[in-house]
Amino acid sequence: MSHVVTLSAKKILDSRGEWTIECTMTSSDGVMATVSVPQGKSRGSFEAVSIEPDKAMGIFKGIIEPALTGGEIALGGQAEIDKKLIALDGTPNKAKLGGNTTLAISLAYARLASHLARVPLWQGLKKIGQNEDAPLAFPRLFVNMVNGGVHAGSGLAFQEYLAIPVANRPSEAIPQVLAVYQKLKAILLERKGAGAINVGDEGGFTPQGEDEEEPFTFMKEAVVQAGFADQIEFGLDAAASQVNLLPHELLSLYTSIKEHFPCIYLEDPYGENDFAHFATVMKHMGHNTLIAGDDLTVTSVARMEEAQKQGSINAMVIKPNQIGTMTETFDAVRKAREFGWRVVVSHRSGETNDDWVSDLACAVNADGFKLGAPARGERITKYNRLLAIEREVT
Length: 394
What we know:
Elements: E1 2-13, E2 19-27, E3 32-36, H1 53-68, E4 72-73, H2 78-89, H3 99-117, H4 121-128, E5 140-147, E6 160-165, H5 170-192, H6 214-226, E7 232-237, H7 247-260, E8 263-267, H8 275-285, E9 290-293, H9 301-310, E10 315-318, H10 326-339, E11 342-346, H11 356-363, E12 368-370, H12 377-393
Parallel strand pairs: 5-12, 7-8, 8-9, 9-10, 10-11, 11-12
Antiparallel strand pairs: 1-2, 1-4, 2-3, 5-6, 6-7
Helix pairs in contact: 1-2, 2-3, 3-4, 4-11, 5-6, 11-12
């Protein structure tokens, strides 16, 4: 049996030029695994606490490394390592160690255990998540085309305008979104000027304006020009905790968008504690639209149970750094399936060049995968990893 010989961490830069954590774990066999963790800008209040990387460095040396060095490494040991991390932290929201710190270790362990088992990460994660008997299924891509909200200075209140190919095989879906992205760029350049094709935190374009439906108008035109009119649907991440509109104004906007565009996905349509208005929009359009919680549910089983009780959503976003360990992430996925919800795995706005989230999306047979625009290196690496996984299984 392999054991943890060394465990170390260092600071690296994320896609916004802010410091984040990279963790390296080495086994007694001399095998090494390194993981870096992303950071969100639009964070729910109920997410696991993210601590400053400088503080995390001291925690690694003073608390975590002495406690975990010498422990066994195996795919079946993930729950035990995560249990130790949770116990070392001892708080309900990872306030002592930091959810970013615990996730870096949890993921490094999963990647190292997969290396030692000689399986790709997605396959190792399927075993860890008790999903190994389910055939691999690729998620539909939820591709950021236009950025607004806190991810861009465009004046648009809503945060992400998404293109969602019907096809789920990466080799089919990715060329479609590339074509639409380039057509959209040309349309925005012609109609709104050169400033409109600047990109936000997740690679989506940032046209100036305050008409919340206008980006969909341009996207619809781009889809038609690219020749995929019946093959790409739309989605919206409103991130409404940061939107200064009244509930009835929001519902009116969502209803209009649904009437005029092929919008099948609506994320965080109201604030992070507004279970009741989520339930209202569910009754209004949940029969043919995924109403997803992100800030509402923050990958937390307790928050999910409240959302289920109130009939607030029929889908949820999975972000491991919202909860802090892979075991808790998989617990949330299983609970979502128990409730009959769709699962959408997501990157974060402050990303690194690590591609593990693509493996996770495949490992849990996610219904959707938010991975940003097909631009910027930290997003492109996720697309390339999907293509590599497809090659691994065909």
